[in-house]
Amino acid sequence: MSPPKLYGNNRVFCKGRFVSGPDVHSCVGTVLMILVPSIVWQVEVGTFYAIEYSFVIPVFGFILQALSIVFMLGTAFSDPGIMPRQKDFSERYDERTKVFRSKEPPRYYEIVLRGYSFKLKFCTTCNIYRPPRTTHCSLCENCVERFDHHCPWLGNCIGKRNYWLFYLFVSFTGALNVFILASSVIHLVILTLNFQASEDAGDAFLRALKDEPMSAVLTVYAVGIVWFTAGLWMYHNYLVSTNQTTYEQIKGVYSNGQNPFNRGTLGNYRDVLLSQVRPRFFDAHTGKLLWPPKRVTATDLKEARASTFGKDSAVPLERRLDEAEGAVREVSDGQLPKLAVTSRNPTSVVKSAEQEAPPALRPQSQLETLPALDLGTLPQDLGPGSAEPQSVSCPVSLKNTPQPLTGPASPTSPMNPMNSPKSDVLPSPSAIVSGRAL
């Protein structure tokens, strides 16, 4: 049985490594619009500058051209932040009532974020409540996190995960457009000035156009699209500086001037363009959820301990370490020793625990060298008729202990806090230290 589909009309390539929109074929035209003028410029204009001036100029142009195409393809074949779909509400089993849900969730759900009220809309296609700034794209049929717009030039949505790629694509494309326009115009001007030595200005300019017609074509082409590329770059700088998306700006979501996501100009640039990009929510090829990562359960911990220490030694060792940490927490007021597990051998781990354990858990051979431990005034348990807790001074000296902690205590032994013959078995070391046995 194939896993349920977590996304809409997107196209997946290379086993889920690349994700695009349903109209990704439109980016072929965009590639040609960048690639063809770039090749023409390198052959005609770039060669002129390399011969007459320096090869640095055509190399710089090549870098702009390569970066523009790379970031364009990166934007067109990246996950914009698709929210994975959930099961239909009728397929959801309610553990509390032991029945399947029969009623659709409420259409809106109100929350307060940063002091502002937001209405989360329930998407009947994706069966989720859309988080703030998430919008459903009607072309891709997905809810996209921090949805900006669906770009028809790239055939993909622009969202939280690929907006920085789109911004770089627009920036380098605008810079490339301006560079080609300026260099082509300068090329024609230089040729015109060279021809003016023997002809007038008008004839010299016509001769320059006749000798280098491709420079003239590049100039006209660059003038025709520079308003779009450079203008788009300026528009998105305005959006980034105010921390808005194209969708929010067109809809006038923050027309009242109250934008809870506005952090100032520098903070907005850092938030939109420099913040860490989270992993994908799911693998589009296998249909498995990837983020957030799976929570570690008690069963996973038990299996991990059993595989590390063995089934027989895992439980006793765990109890011993827990007792050691609990006793040290009570004695040293939260300063826990580091019980480093440096070996898979349970024996070495137990030895390490004995060395780091508090005095009450150390072997009897180490008790002779321990200083006296004065517990001071400890509260006594309240009896049925006690009106208030009584204070008992209980100096416990481990230095003069005549028998091990694990053996029976004599009635007069200082290890028996009750000093009563009715106590046949000593309380646990943690109970002695905390005073619960008193």
TrEMBL record:
Example of a GO biological process term: protein targeting to membrane
GO molecular-function term, one example from the UniProt record: protein-cysteine S-palmitoyltransferase activity
EC number: 2.3.1.225
Transmembrane segments: 24-43, 55-77, 164-193, 213-235
Annotated region described as Disordered, given as residue ranges: 341-438
Enzyme class, broadest EC rank: transferase
Keywords tagged on the record: Acyltransferase, Lipoprotein, Membrane, Palmitate, Transferase, Transmembrane, Transmembrane helix
The UniProt record lists the keyword Membrane: yes
Record carries keyword Membrane: yes
Pfam families tied to this protein: DHHC
Family assignment from sequence similarity: Belongs to the DHHC palmitoyltransferase family.
Domain-related comment: The DHHC domain is required for palmitoyltransferase activity.
Protein name: Palmitoyltransferase
Source organism: Polarella glacialis (Dinoflagellate)
